[in-house]
Amino acid sequence: MSEFSSKVILITGAASGFGQAIANAFAKKGASLSLVDKDEENLNKVTEQCKKAGANKVLAVVADLRVEDNIVRAMNETIETFDRLDVLVNNAGVCKLGSVENVPIDSFDSTFHVNVKAHFHFTQLAVPHLEKTKGNVINIASIVGEMPTPGAIFYGMSKAALIYFTKSAALSLAEKGIRVNAVAPSGCDTNLLNWPESSQPGISMEEILKFYAKDQPLGGINIEKQDVVDAILFLASNSARTITGTCLAVDRGRLLAGSITKLV
Ligand SMILES: NC(=O)c1ccc[n+]([C@@H]2O[C@H](COP(=O)([O-])OP(=O)(O)OC[C@H]3O[C@@H](n4cnc5c(N)ncnc54)[C@H](O)[C@@H]3O)[C@@H](O)[C@H]2O)c1
C-alpha cells in the first residue's frame, strides 16, 4: 500500500501536460484526487483515466482560475467531498511569448492571474486543511523564473514571483507543519504554447525546445513529463519531510548554462 492511498491531492491544470501526468501518477498510487481545470472535455478524459489507473476517488471541478469565486468553489467542493486535503499541486499555467518591446500589455494580467494569484489564493484557502494533515504544497515554476528569458518576459516574471512566494510561504507556514516547495522544469513538449491565450504565431514549441537545448550540460533536447512527476512524487512524500522552501530544477542542468539574450 502506498503512503498516498489514504491521501487527497488537489491538482490544478490537470486536464493536460504535466498536470495530466501528475494526476495519473497519484492515481496509480491509489490516492483520492481533486482535479481542477477550465478545459471540461479534457478534464473528463483525465478523470476517466485516473479512475482506471487506480485512484481511490476522483472529483473533477471545471473552473477558470482567473475567476476568484471559481477557486473558492473548487476548494469548497474538494473539502465537502473528501473532508481533508494532504497535497496541493499548483500546476496550471499560461505562457504568452513576447519581449519588453512587443509583448501585449493585456497579457500581463492574465499571466499573473493564472500563474501567481490563483496559486496564492489556492494556498491561502488550503492552509487550515493542510495544517490538520501536516500536508504540503508544490508549485510548478520554471527555470525561466531564475534565468532571465527576454522572449517570455511576463511568463518569466510570473515564475520568479511564484518562486519568491514558495520560499516566503515555506517560512511562514513551517510553524503549522506545512511544507511548501517548487519544481522548476525546463522545456517539455506539452500544449503550453498551443492555447489561444498563450502562443505567438510563428514559433512552435519544437523550435523553442531545440533553441534552448543548446549548451545543455546533460545534452538531449527536452525533459519528459515523467521527470517532473518523479520530482513531485518525491517532494510530496514523507521522504522529503525535512525539505521546504526549495525550488528543484528538473532541467538537464540547463539553468547552469545561463540566459540567452533573445528567444529564437
Ligand atoms: N511545458 C514546458 O516546457 C514547461 C516548462 C516549465 C514549466 N512549465 C509549467 O508547467 C505547468 C503546466 O503546463 P504544461 O506545460 O503542462 O502546459 P499545458 O498547457 O499542457 O497545461 C496547462 C493546463 O493549465 C490549464 N489552465 C490554463 N489556464 C487556466 C485557467 N485560467 N483556469 C484553469 N485552468 C487553466 C490548461 O487548461 C491546461 O490543462 C505550467 O505552470 C507551466 O508554466 C511548463
TrEMBL record:
<protein>
    <submittedName>
        <fullName>Uncharacterized protein</fullName>
    </submittedName>
</protein>
<dbReference type="Pfam" id="PF13561">
    <property type="entry name" value="adh_short_C2"/>
</dbReference>
<dbReference type="InterPro" id="IPR036291">
    <property type="entry name" value="NAD(P)-bd_dom_sf"/>
</dbReference>
<keyword id="KW-0560">Oxidoreductase</keyword>
<dbReference type="InterPro" id="IPR002347">
    <property type="entry name" value="SDR_fam"/>
</dbReference>
<dbReference type="InterPro" id="IPR020904">
    <property type="entry name" value="Sc_DH/Rdtase_CS"/>
</dbReference>
